[in-house]
């Protein structure tokens, strides 16, 4: 325990500095892997393993990694896209864990935009820095790697499109070593074009029992196919996040800094919704409810601290209708001084450290378990969850 505190103390400053910088810019975050001692992949895996007993995360003993058997193995990861969203980021985390135990890891992004994309560029640089090879989705090299690989991980149901398109007649040689990681539950994923090879892969890995049951039922009912051997593997929190969550000094400094930058006072009440801004995530309802609360407080002359709302996950570049609607709503209702938009970011810890309540308001059947829920719980925050979620 003592040894651990010393290690933490040593790490605290670089970590906090890092977090500071990350508040103002997304891109700086991508430099995090260079700071390799605050990002030990072995420990991240231990953190993930100990998700059931969060209290044990802090004192995970140094020892052999349970992933050691993957040393020198060739792993091909096929992601349907590369973006700052849950699926690709989880796969990237796994890539780094495998690099940490000496696996050779090759990454393929199936859906690649035509024009230059700064986020993709940064995420790829981050992978290259950590020794993950990045290959084009199509071509001889992709096929060769798939044939040679000891394990092929397909990430999300949609990644199934890659199999026939690229492997063609060789697909049957690869299927027996495919682990298919499925996070989603939306009805439109149950398409033959995506999942027809599912019965023939080595295994499916699914984030929750609810989602696994749903897949089992839907594949059978709507496609007449059988799920392969299915493993339910719950998501865990990363070691980096847990370190901040358990460091009261770091949390306090981050809280002060974020609040100051937003113009939120220490005793104001700050509600947050932290998801990519999109229709399914319920940011609109969150803001309507927030506005309604402000009205109620005024009408009833309630004596309450000032309420603020923060929406982390904004992306003005995407020009989505939802984003425009949210901004318009805030302007029309003249609550700009109470509602704060923050760009999409990999580093949620500073925001978790600075808020009072997290609202997880994803709407609709297709929305699956969002890791932000357990990340907020690690920060001992009250989390308001809407019942349609797979939780
Ligand atoms: C947020 O994103 C917008 C558009 O992508 C950009 O113009 C702005 O500078 C970003 N804000 C911060 C604080 O990075
Ligand atoms: C990560 O931590 C483990 C256990 O503390 C240690 O054995 C290993 O050498 C570290 N790896 C790196 C890359 O620092
Ligand atoms: C299974 O799928 C059918 C048809 O899609 C649906 O009517 C039924 O409610 C589902 N059952 C469960 C337990 O999800």
TrEMBL record:
GO terms for molecular function: glycosyltransferase activity. Coiled coil: none annotated. Keywords: Glycosyltransferase, Membrane, Transferase, Transmembrane, Transmembrane helix. Residues 256-385 form the Glycosyl transferase family domain. InterPro entries: Glyco_trans_1, Glyco_trans_4_5. The keyword Transmembrane applies. It comes from the Eukaryota. PANTHER family: GLYCOSYLTRANSFERASE. This is Group 1 family glycosyltransferase. The lineage of its organism: Eukaryota, Viridiplantae, Streptophyta, Embryophyta, Tracheophyta. The gene is 25490226.
